[in-house]
Design brief:
two-stranded antiparallel sheet; 15% strand; single chain; 15 helices; eight-stranded parallel β-barrel; alpha/beta; 456 residues
């Protein structure tokens, strides 16, 4: 049986996410992002279209690298204003049954004890439909916002993340045994204290002595997403991640990343199919190729090159205002998303210019759109899966909601006809749908944190 392709909608609780400037299109509704009805309608549409989930990005700083100012980010709504993605989940979960929610949270600025409780709460409220996109951040503005001079060095952030994961695994996996909750009304015994254990941690970055405040949720640990493609990020993904998000790469680059992460995972005692990979993609489609092309040209009229440079400057840690259009860009030593710089080097060569960067951002981002009628798009998606080993796609919004309506109307049926897309949802929590079991397997590093009662 052919492997089925998975779709997540890729969005953010803000006006301008990836395709910069398209919020200004007259049919786009993303400026309604602060309305709860916008998100509940969104969730209903995605579930009716059998999307696996909605993947919500986030940042906790402002994009102020271009020109050393946040003015252009504010003018163009480049991921600002931005609201908390976690707050959306209960409302969207209340109007759906199967749609999953991948939420981004920056562990660098989250106290692990309280964060673990928030995620357990969401796992309870959604019936096990929550995933966590683990990020360590890339904005100095976020570090300054909480009183630091700047970010930790890139690889040091991953060292901190490894310890952070150790702490939250102990809370989620080890504090409460599965048989702890009794709900014995007759004897006034809700839970057995002998099966609830203290988490004691004394590490370089974190110290804790406490019991997890939540009883075990359907998945215990949320499904773990991660998006790092640097060598240190790949090592982290191979150890912790269940779903990996890759972006901004040619096929050979994606193939190399996918193969490397899975090989590292196997070397560490996991199985290759313990990791599913989602590729970032943008689709513009219609009933015919010409209709799709006309729609693309219409969208293109609203692209903001300035806003696109704002986003690229922050993600790469390079102030492009310092370079003329045809002057080679000096990348230097960046503490931002180093894999983005390497991807640009691979795409255009190491001596690339601002003009070459702008030429790539045809819809306001470096993600080249797939444009065409349903059969042509389906062919391209299948090629990516077959040639690179990815399992599905995080689909960026262009003009919402019509971009996802188009995919649901045109692309999903074509994939279903080929036996490559589900015709209904499986039952169970998110991890059950993805991997066949609701809890992390014993070969995952989190399993070491189980049975704390034997050690404390």
């Amino acid at each position: 049986m052919p492997r089925q392709i998975r779709f997540n909608a890729f969005d953010m609780n803000c006006v301008g996410h990836i395709q910069q400037g398209l919020w200004a299109h007259p049919r786009d509704r993303s400026s309604d992002y602060a309305s709860l009805s916008y998100w509940t309608d969104y969730a209903r549409r995605l579930e009716a279209g059998l999307f696996d989930g909605i993947f919500l990005a986030d940042v906790v700083g402002i994009y102020d690298v271009l020109g050393g100012s946040y003015d252009a980010a504010v003018r163009g709504a480049v991921q600002v204003p931005v609201n908390d993605p976690l707050m959306l989940v209960p409302a969207m979960a209340a109007v759906t049954k199967h749609l999953a929610f991948g939420v981004t949270a920056n562990l660098t600025y989250e106290q692990p004890f309280l964060f673990a409780r928030r995620m357990s709460t969401l796992d309870h409220l959604t019936g096990g439909r929550i995933g966590w996109n683990i990020v360590t951040g890339y904005l100095d503005s976020a570090a300054r916002a909480i009183g630091l001079d700047g970010q930790m060095a890139h690889d040091d952030r991953y060292d901190l993340a490894d310890e952070y994961m150790d702490v939250v695994y102990k809370l989620w996996e080890g504090s409460w045994e599965d048989g702890a909750v009794l709900r014995d009304r007759a004897n006034h015994l809700y839970a057995d204290p002998a099966k609830v254990h203290r988490v004691v941690h004394q590490g370089k970055q974190y110290r804790m002595d406490s019991v997890h405040l939540c009883e075990p949720s359907p998945q215990r640990t949320p499904v773990l997403y991660q998006a790092g493609s640097s060598p240190r990020g790949r090592a982290f993904a191979a150890t912790h991640a269940e779903c990996v998000f890759v972006n901004g790469q040619k096929k050979e680059g994606v193939t190399e990343i996918v193969s490397d992460i899975r090989a590292r995972a196997v070397a560490g005692g996991r199985q290759a199919d313990d990791i599913k990979v989602f590729l970032g993609a943008t689709i513009v489609t219609g009933r015919t190729d010409q209709e799709a092309r006309d729609k693309f040209e219409d969208y293109r009229r609203y692209v903001s090159s300035e806003a696109a440079l704002v986003h690229a400057a922050a993600s790469m840690g390079i102030d492009f205002s310092k370079f003329d259009l045809d002057e080679p860009v000096e990348t230097g030593k960046s503490q931002a998303i180093t894999s983005n710089i390497k991807a640009m080097d691979r795409a255009t060569g190491p001596q690339w210019t601002k003009r070459k960067l702008l030429e790539q951002m045809v819809l306001g981002s470096r993600q080249p759109p797939m444009i065409g009628a349903a059969d042509a798009i389906a062919d391209k998606l299948v090629e990516w899966v077959d040639e690179t080993g990815v399992d599905g796609f995080n689909l960026s919004r262009t003009v919402v909601p019509e971009c996802f309506d188009d995919i649901i109307e045109h692309i999903v049926p074509r994939l279903q006809e080929r036996g490559l897309y589900k015709t209904g949802y499986d039952e169970g929590p998110l991890r059950q749908k993805l991997f066949g079991a609701p809890r992390l397997p014993d070969r995952h590093i989190a399993a070491r944190s189980r049975n704390l009662g034997l050690h404390v």
